[in-house]
Here is the input.
Amino acid sequence: MQVTKTALDGVLIIEPKVFGDARGWFMETWSARKFEAAGLKFNFVQDNQSYSAHCGTLRGLHYQTAPFAQAKLVRCTRGKLLDVAVDIREGSETFAKWIAVELSAENKKQLLIPRGFAHAFLTLTDDVEIQYKADNFYAPMCDGNIRWNDSEIKIEWPFTPRLLAEKDANAPSLRERLENGELRFN
Here is the structure.
């Protein structure tokens, strides 16, 4: 397993070792032992899977607050997507900064997103499946979102999304969430 740091502290690109032959391939997508050996200790308690039928579908920017804040290990198992993590930890040196990584069934990369980050993805092909592990359970009362095109964050999307949920289209800005004291992760 190869672990690559990004510009955001704690956000990592994970590349599992892939073993291939004439039959196809095999890889370990998660190994507590290997993660711990790399200094990464997570107790993932929930697996989630999402399917998007059409290219240009945007989901996010989503997060959960304390006491149910979540770290995620994200991978794409069909198609291709742009996965985005945004630092929304008040007082962080990289507050409102973001990174984007292309995840695909072909490249098998994974993105590790710690607690205190908002997460979104934009599908780059039709028929996209995303799967992710979370280290805390989903809790509707702690669920939050931020506008995908927030003027303070300034994510450089490769194109304007074609499909998104009403809750994401009408999400508040990062500044509104901050001013309302809604960004608590500890």
About this structure: The chain is about 10% helix and 40% strand.
